[in-house]
## 1
Amino acid sequence: MSFVAAAAFQWVNPKAWIMALGAITTYLPQQAGLPAVCILAVMLAVVNAPCVGAWAAFGVGLRRVLTAPSQLRAFNVTMAALLVLSLSPTLTQGTGRPSSVLVLHRGHQSPDSDIPVADVTPPAPPGRAPAPAAPVRPPSAPR
């Protein structure tokens, strides 16, 4: 694939669209204009360039090491197993086993903020009733 073809491919790359939309909706205010979007794009490019360079260098190094088909197969199987293992917290969520769900303690609030933090708890294991939600104090309530 040529450089131009690879650059054109990014317009239909779903990972690139998800990353771009996620970054815009997360880091820019709702009324942000084109200058703010351009600044964000430059910041993402500055962060992305060394990451892509490291990824390419790693690939070149692996090409030199993985010369035999058996080595390549062992590497691919290992990487696939690690990928599935990395999904296990998501796949086991709600089964009573540890998961990667962020749990905020009830009543936790930043001391310098009037914004209450919602109670986020993992789903109850099967056969158990969920814990009652803690009331969220309105911002106007006295401390």
## 2
Amino acid sequence: MGELTGGVHGRERRDSPLMPDPHRIRQAVARLGARPDRCLMIGTGDTEWEAARAARVTFVYVDASSFRGHQDPELTSSGLLPLLRAAQSL
């Protein structure tokens, strides 16, 4: 498997904007030196989906049964294990 870069990016200060503000996602994309359309965000919440959409990052919704967005999520997964297996197959 080739190297997959990425990481976990969270708030640096208590007064940092919360999702659905896309600030943190845009910052993570910039730190990776990547384009938003070449990135992937995995999450479980509608606010994460909204933030990824605003940042123009592809979003995989894990367990979309709780999705409440105004349109269906484009990509879904039943859990994290199928995503890990897919990444390992690259």
## 3
Amino acid sequence: MASEAPALHRLLDDWAGRMESLLAMDDEDIYWEIEHAVGAQFYTESWHPRTPSRPTVNSRRLLERLSKGWFGTVGPASPQTRYMNDGVLYFDATPAAGVAPVVEKPASGVWTASFLPSGATTWDRGESRFKRLGRELYELHFDESGVVVYVIDSLDDFAVLASRFPGAVVDGRVRLDWQKVKAEFDAVHLTAKGLLTADRCPVVTSEGVAELSGWGSQSTVWFRRPPGLRVGTSAS
């Protein structure tokens, strides 16, 4: 029997015996349940893929649910959102001295979040911990048809990316060579389903084992300015 991603396993365990209630939730509530399940890694001693402890039909039904409605928008929709102080985007900021050029996440780029159905954003709850910074929410409007985006919507999607762009081996894991990814794509986008099924799941490449970690769902890292970009505060 195939193993389950740790976050997926945790979510299904949390809702064991209540699957119908989970599937009946609106998209936004399910989204935050996913974030809660992924966040469990920070207070769980062992976090790795596990053998399913319940009927695998539950997993299939949940993943089918995460392909519909708001979740069915695969790729970064315009507008994207970002909390900032000055509204200036630094796509090619030079990494700080001593920072390795190949890391689990790109060392440079502009990170954005997505709007939820209610008009809130997937960044809001995280930003609430940093109110002291006084950052404003900005909207980034762009031409969706003019960007080339790699979308991680599953473990297989991450495995393909890691196999195509392997970099240095650090602490026993192959890190992606983000400079090579940047040469081919304008951005990389991680969906909620992608986070749930790929985060902290080792995949074997020709150069060793790679593992996605440190990302948030419905997030996008932009390597260059998308066409038609307009930036403004949500209030403007």
## 4
Amino acid sequence: MNYKIKRKGISTKEYFLSRQNDQNKLFQEVTRLTKDESAEYKKMYDHLVEVNENRKNYTPEIIGKSLENLVTFLLDKSAIFSVLNNLHTSTNEIDQLVQLNPTGKEFRNRGLIDIKDDFFLCECKNYLKKIDVTWVGKFYSLLRVSNGNGKLGIIFSYYPLSGKSGWTDGIGLTKKIHLKENYSIISFSRSDYEQILQGSSLISLIHAKMIALSTDTNYLHHLSEHPAQSI
């Protein structure tokens, strides 16, 4: 107990909220990129942009790996996930099977992580266009047949899902699936990778996008600014 604070006459409520705030700050610092990791991530992001803006100069393998490597790096450096890449089931291939590691489960027990399942799936689609309803539907089918791996799925791409804020195309299908089947399919694209460059953490973006999907709102409304972003 902080006896200096106690002697100042701090209330039980203030003491509890102070401790909770300390836990939140610890969680934010553990899950965001360090200075060195941010520098490495910047190189990977720049490579992703270069490859996508000049696709004719690169092989399909390099194009695909530019996104897969960036995603694996972000998941790994979040400190709360363990990642298995390119797994084959009897009928499908899974780009990334992601599991909450012991640190992630500890943070979840403290109420700091809102991912209910121990596992979730990720799919990387580094295509020349927006991800349309067909690919969202295929990913949903993969989630259903892999139900033991949870009801959260993340699509990582360079261009966003097709559609705007309504109920049509790729974005609309994710809303319908969430409403009717309670599966949460969220997506990351170039603008989100830029958010991470500016100081946001991967897990804060995941949380914001999950809330936005449930409330049909813009995820940026649910994203708290990290102090580094205001520098």
